[in-house]
Specification:
single chain; mainly alpha; 74% helix
Length: 126
């Protein structure tokens, strides 16, 4: 009887542990997808703002820097902070280092080749 109870307890504990592990893994994957989505949106917004007047999309630009501050890697947060300070001081900033860092991190998260030639920034004036 004790052996049966012990086996039953082991099965229940294994089930609970399995459920907890699956829930944890699922939650981590959901958070990872959300983070990628926010950082990809920030990358697109900053890329769009690069070499264009800031006034045309200032609100989206501010939101992108805020998202990087919340969800970015420490290097990206530092670069975003530098961009914010530069804009506050002189109304202009170089986004190349931040865009490069975001691009590399996103490619790594998406399991893409990290080292690829840099894309030129194309601007079509209308």
């Amino acid at each position: 009887m004790l052996a049966v109870m012990s086996s039953l307890l082991g099965i229940v504990l294994a089930g609970i542990l399995s459920f907890a592990t699956a829930t944890y893994v699922s939650r981590r994957e959901t958070l990872r997808r959300e983070r990628i989505g926010f950082l990809l949106s920030a990358y697109r917004t900053l890329s769009d703002a690069s070499h264009r007047p800031l006034e045309s999309n200032a609100r989206a630009f501010e939101q992108a820097l805020s998202d990087i501050g919340l969800l970015g890697e420490p290097e990206q947060v530092q670069l975003a902070t530098t961009v914010a300070h530069d804009i506050a001081r002189s109304k202009t900033a170089n986004l190349d280092d931040l865009l490069h860092s975001l691009r590399g991190a996103l490619r790594e998260e998406l399991a893409l080749a990290k080292e690829v030639p840099a894309m030129p920034i194309l601007r079509i004036d209308q």
